[in-house]
Amino acid sequence: YSLLFLKAKFYEERYYQQRELKFAAKKDVIQKRILLAQKHPLVLNFRGPCICGSSFSAYHIREVWGDPAQPDDLELWNKVRRSVKAKKKYRGRCAVEAMTIREYRKAGGHFSFAPGDTFIEGMHKRVHQFRQQWEELQYQATKSKEIKDKLQETDPIQEILSRLKWDERVPGAKEKMERIIGALWAGQIDKGTPIYASLLI
Length: 201
Known about the structure:
Layout: H1 3-25, H2 27-38, H3 58-65, E1 70-71, H4 74-87, H5 93-106, E2 111-112, H6 123-141, H7 145-153, H8 156-161, H9 173-186
Antiparallel strand pairs: 1-2
Helix pairs in contact: 4-5, 6-7
């Protein structure tokens, strides 16, 4: 094994050990969040009142889902963010944030949730924004073979996932996120089989 491989393996094992210790210390908080999340299945529209009758206020979101995941490597995150902004290619804070997340992941960066937290920040908005981009690309594809080929190689679900803060190292997280984003992308949720926008369930 190379030194680089052994070093990566060491940090991976340490990550899982520290994660288990943190989650064990916050068992009560996690259990409370699981119970709250089970009462709040995924909805297609994030506007208006919550399914429980409360408004989607910052307080209510934090109460049910906690805080969003944070970048593990803040130095890399800031470097990527400066690079994305310098290109002046993306308009609006949300677009800059989405591309920063995407490029940070491509550079090898990861995100982590604090114990009990599971809020996927900007989830509905990312789906809506990418749907608009996708429709524009489909139109352009009728005039450009290059864009048509690009569309055929692009998986909308995976592209949206690359623009969200979540921890892909958590066992089962990728499958859960694919199901959540898949439902939002399709614009359809099976009422008989609720989907929960929480990686704790």
